[in-house]
Each structure stands twice: as structure tokens, then as C-alpha cells.
Specification:
Blueprint: E1 2-8, E2 13-18, H1 21-29, E3 43-45, H2 67-70, H3 75-93, E4 95-98, H4 101-109, E5 118-120, H5 124-132
The structure holds zinc ion (ZN).
């Protein structure tokens, strides 16, 4: 299963669950998706927090913080801490496929390789091509690191 944040033309946001990215694309093309609030069928994927779960095998848990940790800190510092924890999580759990990222993301998407979370590098063109094909990838700029997808 894969979860998408969706948005209708009126701006209502809702979640949609699909068997695969292909399933989502085909339902959308056939106009089978509709907004639970207004019934509109012009549905787009909404931008959401970066998700690295290519293939949706292992969703990254949202980082949690205890109230004591947040006390007295400004929101920017808290956001930075959450971000760095999320990166830790990704680095720990995702398989590094390096420059094979675009190829491997495609194989997972088209179910030619086991669904799992991967990370690696992709050029601007490769990244855009993956997005165009409806393959869920997220780009995370890292200081000192080439590029993590
Ligand atoms: Zn709506």
C-alpha cells in the first residue's frame, strides 16, 4: 500500500490509499478519484513532507520529540533537530545504491525488484524523469554530500 496526500481543485486535502503508484495513476486518469468534501474529480498530489519510501515498503516514522526537549527552543532550532533525526533514520534504514539510484527506483516502482527504502544519487534530469513517471522520490539537499534521494 502507498499513501498519497491529495488535493482537489478547491484546495481540500485528503489522503488516498493505493495498491501502487501505477494504481493511483490509472484511477486518476479514469476519473475514479473524487474529493470527499466536494466530490470534485480534479485531484492532484499535494506537496507533503519528504518521503523517501520508494516502493512504500518501509515508511519513515515521523520524528518525535519530548516536550522537555522543545522547551525554551525557538521553532527553527526544533525544526532543525527534527530534520536531522529524520536524516539519521533514513541513513540507518535505507539501502545505499549510489549512482544506480534512478535505475533501482524504477525497478522497484515497476515491481522488478523487492520493494524497499533506498537512497542514492541522481542528476537533475534523472530526478525529473523519475517524477514524470510518477515514481515517488524525494530530494534532500545535504551540505557536503553530493545528493541524497
Ligand atoms: Zn474538494
Amino acid at each position: 500500500m502507498i499513501v498519497y496526500d491529495l488535493r482537489c481543485a478547491e484546495g481540500h486535502r485528503f489522503e488516498g490509499w493505493f495498491g501502487s503508484a501505477r494504481d493511483f495513476a490509472s484511477q486518476r486518469r479514469r476519473g475514479l478519484l473524487s474529493c470527499p468534501a466536494c466530490g470534485g474529480t480534479r485531484i492532484e498530489r499535494a506537496l507533503s513532507a519528504p518521503r523517501i519510501n520508494v516502493g512504500a515498503a518501509a515508511p519513515v516514522a515521523a520524528p518525535q520529540m519530548k516536550t522537555q526537549e522543545m522547551e525554551g527552543k525557538d521553532p527553527f532550532a526544533i525544526a532543525q533537530m527534527l530534520y536531522s533525526r529524520m536524516l539519521d533514520e533514513i541513513f540507518t534504514r535505507a539501502e545505499d545504491v549510489g549512482a544506480r539510484f534512478p535505475e533501482e527506483a524504477r525497478r522497484i516502482h515497476y515491481e522488478q525488484a523487492p520493494a524497499r527504502m533506498i537512497r542514492g544519487r541522481a542528476s537533475e534530469e534523472e530526478h525529473d524523469a523519475l517524477v514524470d513517471e510518477g515514481i515517488p522520490v524525494a530530494r534532500i539537499p545535504l551540505p557536503g554530500v553530493d545528493r541524497l534521494n
